[in-house]
Amino acid sequence: MLKWRVDYAKKVGGTMNLAGTYAVVDIETTGTSIDGTNRMIQFSCVFVKGGKIINSFNTMINPLMPIPKEVQHLTGITNKDVKKAPLFEDVAGTIFALLQDTTFVAHNINFDYRFLNAEFERVGYPASELEGIDTVQLSQILLPTLPSFKLSYLSEYLNLSHRHPHHADSDAEATAQLLIFLLKTIANLPLRCLEVITSYQNSLLMQTGSCFKEAFEKRQRKDNVLPAYLQEVGGIVLRRFGLSTRPQKEKTYPQTTASKRKLFANVLEWRPVQIEMMDHVHELLEKNDHSRLVLEAPTGLGKTLGYLIPAAYAVNKGKKVVVSTATTALQTQMKEQVLPLLQQILPFEIEAAVLKGSHHYLDLEKFSQSLHQPQGKQTRLLQLRLLVWLTITKTGDLSELHLTKYQNPLFNEIRHHGLDSLEAGSAFFTYDFVRRQRMYQDNADLLIANHSYLLNHVEILGSPEANLIIDEAQHLSSMALASNRDEIDFDELKIICDSLLVKIGSHVSFAFEQLEKQKFITHAENHEVAENIRIIDQRIPEIRDNLMHRFVQKNGTKKDFFESIVPVNRLRGFIKENYASIEYVNKAFENFEQEYQKLMRRFEEFKVENRLDKKAVHFLNDFFALSRRLVDCRQYWMRMELTRLEKQEDETIVWLSIPLDNPGAHLRLQFGLLQVKNFLRPYVYNNFQHVLFVGASLLLPNTMDYTLDQLDLPHDTQIVQLPGAFDYHKQALALIAADAPDVTHELDNYIAYLAETLKEIILDNKRQTLILFNSLAMIEKVYHFLSESGVTLQREILAQGVTGSNEKIMKRFRLSKDTVLLGAGTFWEGIDLPKDRLELLVITRLPFQAPDTLINRVKYRNLMLEGQDPFQNIALPEAMMRLKQGLGRLIRTPEDRGVIILLDSRVVTKNYGTQMQKVFPTTMPRKIIKTNEIKKHLLNFWENQQP
C-alpha cells in the first residue's frame, strides 16, 4: 500500500496541478510540545476537490522512542504498532511531494502545521509554505450554538463517519467530510454576512478567511435576495420576528386512562406515576380557592412533563401559568428539550416564553458599534460567530451560544442593560431582543422564569388569577436569601469615583473639555457631574473610617480576616451620628444619576446624527461604563436609609468584613435576610391563586416541618409524595466504608486514607466516575496526590478549581468516557448524567455545612434562645437534603446502572447515622463493609449486570 502511495506522490509532485485541492491532514505524536522532544507516530492526509474526497494517504511512523502510556491510551497506538513502521525521514519526501500545490487543512491547524514543518526541518527538508485553513475556527463561526468543537463531537452531531477518534486516518477523513460541509454552509450565508466576515479575514488563522472571501466574490456576481425569514437591519442580518395569532379551540383535560394513552401514543412512554402526578396538578389548577400543594416527584418519572401537560390544558382554557425553575441552565433545558416534546403530545399549540433578566440578551446597537472598533483576534472571532448566530436566533439570548464562560470583555460591552438604556432613534430599536421578550411575554400562554427572575419581578408576573409552579422548590429559600443580599464596598466606591474624576479632568488624553468643544456638554454640566462625583469621593473615606473606628477596632482580633455582626439598632445609631455625611452622599448619588441619564440620551442622539468623532465615542463608552457601576452602587447605599432599617429590623442581618493583613483591603458592609419566614408567603405566594411546589429532593424522613419552614408554608399544607420510578434493587448498590477515619477527630489520617482509597478506586474501575467533596481545598490536596502518584497519566482526572472552571470541566465530563471528576458545591445537584455518563459515584464525606460561618452562628444562636437544638433542626436536615441530592446524581433513567460509595463512617458510628441511612432509596441494597472490600463488591456488581 505504501509503495502505491509513493507512486501517487511522484505523480502529484511531478505533473499534476492540484490548484483548488485541499490536503486535509491529521497527525498523532508522542506529545504536544513542538520543541524537538516529541516525534510523529502516524500521518494521514485526505484530498478534497470539488466538494468530494478524491484520494488519501496514511502511514504509521516509528518515533524511535517509547510512546507514553497516556498517548497509547488516547490513540490506541502501541509501541508494537510502530516497531516496523518507516522512520519519518523515510517518508518525508513522499509527504512533502503530496502536499505541493494544495491548501493545507487541519482541525487545530496551529498544531499539525507547525509540528509537521518542525519535522520537515529536522530531517533536512524546508518548512512548507502552503496556505492553510483551520476547521476549528470555521466550525466556531458557522455552528455558533454548539457546546463543543472537538472533532468527535462535530462528527456525531453532523453524522460524519468517524470510526476511530484520535487515530489520524479516521480523524483526517472526518475532518475532510467536515470541511465539505463547512464550505457548503459558507456558500449559503447571506451576502452581507460574507462581506463583513471577509473584511475581518485577517483576524482568522492563516488563510481561513479566504473561504469567505472566495464565496463573497462568487456571490457578488449573482442576484442576492435574502430568504423570507431573514432581514437586514443596520448592516446586520437578523432572523425575522413574529407572534402567533392563531385562535385555539378549547380542549378538555384527558380524565380517563384511555384518553391519556391516546394522548401519549407513539410519543411518550406510559408511566403510571407520571399520570398520577398529572392528575394531582390538574386537580390543583381547577380549584376555585387559593391552594398550595407540595409534591415530591422522584427522579425518572418525568416530573417536568408531569406538571407541564396539565398546565398546558389550564392555559388552553385561558388561565395564566408561570413556571419557575432554579437556574437559567434548567430554563434552557426546558426550552430546547421538553417544550418540543410537549408540543408533540398536545392536540393544540401553546405559546411559551422564557423570561430572563435583560443582561442575558445581546444589545444589537452595542454589538453593531463593537464591529467598528479595534478588537483583538479572539474577540473578532467571537464577533463573527455572533454575526452568524444572529441569522439563527429568535431571542438574542446569549446562553444559546453554550459557552463555558462569558468573560471576554466584549460581553460586558454588548450585554443588554434594560429597556431604559434603549434609544428610540436607533435603527435597532424596533428589533431589540428585550422588547421582543416583552412581546413574547404578553403573547405567551405559558411563562418560564427562573427563581431569581421570579423574586425580582413577582409583581409583574403575579395576578389574582395566575398560577405558579415552582420546580426545584428546595432552592427557592436560598435564592430568596441571595436576592435580598446587598453589599456596600466603600473602597470600590472610592476607586470608581477616582477613575471617573481622572477620566473627566485628564490633561494628557481625551476628557470632558474636548466634549465641550464638540458641543456635547456645557461647562455648567461638566462642573455639575464632576462636583457630585467629588462629593461621593471625599465623603466615603470619612464614613469608612468612622465605621472602622466604631465596629472594627473595638472588636480587636488576632485573625487575618475580620467579620462581625452589626446589630441593626447599633447601625441605626451610627447612621444618626453620621447623618449629614450619609445624606450628603445620597443626594450626590441622586443628582449624578439624573445627569447620567440625561447624558446617555444625548449620546444616543449625537451618534445617530454622527456629531461625535471616534475619540469622543470611545471616551464616552468608557465613561458610561464606569458611570453605570456608580449608579448601580446607589441601590446598595439606600440600604442605610433609617426608615427602611426600622421596617426590616426583625428580619435583617447586617455584618461588616475586612481582611486585616492587607493595607489596601476593602471594607464591606453587607445586608441580608436571615431567614425566609414571613417573606416568601406575603411577597411571592400571595400574588398567585394556586402555588405548586415540585422537586425530587423535597421531603425527608422526620423532616417535613423543616421543608415547610424553608418554604415559608404552614405545617398543614397539603403534601403528596409520589413513589420512585426505578428498580434500585437491580440498578444500583450502595457501599458504606465502616472503617473510614472520623473526619471530625482524625483529619490528617482521614486525608491520607481518602487519597489512597480514591487512588485504588480510580485505578481499579475504568468507569465514568464522579467524586463529591465538601471543599475545594480538599479537592486540591487529593488531586495533587493523584498527580504525584501517576494516576493522572492513566486516567483523565478533572478537578474543580484546579483543571478548569465548573462549566469547562462539566462539558468535558459530559463528552468523555472513562473520566473522573472531582467536584464540590453545584456538582451535588442539578446535573443530569444518564446511562454511561455516570456509573460510579463516590461521596467522600457527609455534606454538613460549616457551623462556624457567620450566618450559621446567628441562626444557631437564635434557635438556642428559643430552646431548640440547632443540630437536629438545621444542621442535620440540611445535610440529609444535600446527601439526597448527591445520591440522585447516579440513577437517572431505567437503563442506568451504578454504584455509590460513601467514605464516611459516621453514618454507621454516630447516633444520627440511622437517620442518614434513611436518605438512601429504600429498595437500594446497602452494604456496610471495610474499605479493602470495596474492590470485590464492585467487581461482583458489574459481573452480575446484564450486558
Write the layout of secondary structure elements.
Blueprint (H helix, E strand, L loop, with lengths): L1 H13 L7 E8 L10 E10 L2 E9 L8 H7 L3 H4 L5 H12 L3 E4 L2 H14 L9 E3 H8 L8 H8 L9 H20 L3 H9 L10 H11 L9 E4 L2 E4 L17 H8 L7 H15 L5 E5 L6 H14 L3 E6 L2 H18 L6 E3 L9 H8 L5 H13 L19 H6 L18 H11 L2 E5 H6 L1 H4 L4 E5 L5 H8 L2 E4 H16 L6 H6 L5 H30 L8 E5 L2 H10 L1 H30 L5 H24 L4 H6 L4 E8 L8 E6 L6 H4 L6 E6 L8 H7 L7 E4 L6 H4 E6 L9 H18 L4 E4 L3 H13 L2 H4 L1 E4 L6 H10 L3 E5 L16 E4 L10 H12 L4 H18 L10 E5 L3 H4 L3 H5 L8 E4 L4 H10 L4
How would you describe the overall organization of this protein?
The protein has 4 domains: 224 residues, Ribonuclease H-like superfamily/Ribonuclease H (Nucleotidyltransferase, domain 5), CATH 3.30.420; 166 residues, P-loop containing nucleotide triphosphate hydrolases (Rossmann fold), CATH 3.40.50; 188 residues, no CATH class; 216 residues, P-loop containing nucleotide triphosphate hydrolases (Rossmann fold). A 7-stranded parallel sheet has the order 10-11-9-12-17-8-18, sandwiched between helices. It starts with a helix and ends with a helix. It contains 40 helices and 25 strands. The N terminus is likely disordered. The relative contact order is 0.07. The radius of gyration is 32 Å and the shape is globular. With 947 residues, it is α/β, with parallel strands linked by helices. This is 3'-5' exonuclease DinG. 3'-5' exonuclease.
